[in-house]
Amino acid sequence: MSKFDDFLSGVSNGLAPLVTDFAAGLRKDAVDDMLAFLDAKKDDLLRWTDLLAKGQITQLEFTMLVNGAKSLLKLRALRVAGVQLARVQRLRSAFVDLVIQQAVGTFLPG
Known about the structure:
- There is one protein chain.
- The chain is mainly α.
- It has one domain.
- Helix content is about 75%, strand content about 0%.
- It is built from 7 helices and no strands.
- It has helices at about 5-15, 15-20, 25-40, 40-55, 60-70, 75-80, 85-105.
- Helix 1 packs antiparallel against helix 7 (about 85-105), helix 4 runs antiparallel to helix 5 (about 60-70) and helix 5 packs antiparallel against helix 7.
- It is elongated, with a radius of gyration of 14 Å.
- It starts with a helix and ends with a helix.
């Protein structure tokens, strides 16, 4: 398994704790939306994590790139279900933090 696969697996495994505030039916929808984001941004994440691992971008630059993509994380199901915008924004931010932490832990020397 490659480091990138380890990274994706780590992010996927970290999703469940992020959605504990939501009703059971909405948890699955939220996880599905976050996995769809990972799939849609896979090529970018692969390129960015490679640059991070090679020291060609800093952790701050990586963070800025991931945060720039955050608007693509729709969390459509939650908004359709009428979940408060503040809760959706907190979940989106927590997910982006998970992606960044997992990349740093996977690709940067400890």
